[in-house]
Amino acid sequence: MHRIAIGLLAAGLLPSIALAQGARVDQFRWLAGCWAFDTPDGRYEEIWTPPTGNSMLGVSRRIVDGFTREFEYMRIVTSGGGGFDFIALPQGENATRFNSVSFTDDSVVFENPDNDFPNRVTYTLAPPDGVDARIEGRSNGQPMGINFPLKRTSCP
C-alpha cells in the first residue's frame, strides 16, 4: 500500500498530501488584528487572532445606534485535504464550513456550493492598511455580493 501511495504522489495524483504538509494558517498572518469600516447604517468590525495552533479565530459585529445588531464567530483552520477551511457561526448558531478553492500569500477564497448565501467568502490583503473582504451567493434566487472594505484600526 505504501508503494501505491508513493507512486500516486510521484505521478501527481495525490497533490493534496504534498500540499497538506506545507499548508499552514501562518501564511494568513496579515489578517490578524482589528479591522473596521463605517457605513451609513452603522459600523462593521472584525477581529482576528494571530495564527496559533494552526488556526485563527475571528469575531465580527455590526453596530447600529450603539447596539450590536449582528455578530459572527469564525475560524480558519487547515483542512484534511491540504487547503484551508473557514467555519462561520452567524449569531453564534449552527456552523457552516467553507473549503478553500484558491489561496496565495495575500488572499484566500472559500466556497460552500450547498449554502445559498453566502456560498463564497474572500479575503484579500489591500496594502498599506486594508483587507478587502467579500461575500457572494444567491438571495431570493438572484446573485448578490457584499464588499467589506476593512481598514486596520486600534484593538479595543
Descriptive keywords:
globular, 156 residues, ten-stranded antiparallel beta barrel, Lipocalin, 2 helices, single chain, mainly beta
Largest sheet: 10 strands, antiparallel, barrel
What's the name of the CATH homologous superfamily?
A: Calycin beta-barrel core domain
Percent of residues in beta strands: over 45%
User: Which structural class matches the secondary elements?
Assistant: mainly beta
Question: How would you describe what is shown here?
Answer:
The protein has two helices and ten strands, in the order ααββββββββββ. It has helices spanning 2-10, 15-22; strands at residues 33-39, 42-48, 55-64, 67-78, 84-90, 96-104, 107-111, 120-126, 130-139, 142-152. A hairpin with a 6-residue loop joins strand 2 (42-48) and strand 3 (55-64). Residues 1-20 form the signal peptide.
